[in-house]
Amino acid sequence: MVILTHLDSKLHTPTYFFLRHLSITDLGYSTVIGPKMMVNFVVHKNTVSYYSCATQLAFFEVFIITELFILSAMAYDCYIAICKALLYRVIMAEKVCWGLVLTAYLHGTFVSLFLTIKLFQLSCDSNIIKYFYCDCSAPTHMSYN
């Protein structure tokens, strides 16, 4: 999708511009998680270093948050195309499209860095997370009534 929308001049519209960047973010968060997961399947050892975990989380959050804002930009593009069809080319100029996409990438980066830094500043008793949270232990027994 990225190559196709870049090469074909008929697809140089705001809609396909946003689809290209949506594809880039999808590719990004797939390549952040996928390779390590595949290595863990082959090696049968589910370990990751502390810094690798932080880096992986930061990049994953960048792409997820950016994707949400690109989807919002796409919704805005559809709104303009439907409600202000005669002014569509004026409102959705190339500069506006680039501004929306760059804002999405920058916002995703800053929020991701903030969340990752704050999360990894928390102190835990152990560097092994047995369950979902490192701040509470799982119940020792479960009863089903």
From TrEMBL:
InterPro entries: GPCR_Rhodpsn, GPCR_Rhodpsn_7TM. GO terms for molecular function: G protein-coupled receptor activity. It comes from the Eukaryota. Signal peptide: none annotated. PROSITE patterns: G_PROTEIN_RECEP_F1_2 (PS50262). The lineage of its organism: Eukaryota, Metazoa, Chordata, Craniata, Vertebrata. The chain crosses the membrane at residues 57-76, 96-117. Its main location: membrane. Residues 1-145 form the G-protein coupled receptors family 1 profile domain. GO terms for cellular component: membrane. This is Olfactory receptor 8K1. Keywords: G-protein coupled receptor, Membrane, Receptor, Transducer, Transmembrane, Transmembrane helix. It is found in: Membrane. Pfam families: 7tm_1. SUPFAM superfamilies: Family A G protein-coupled receptor-like (SSF81321).
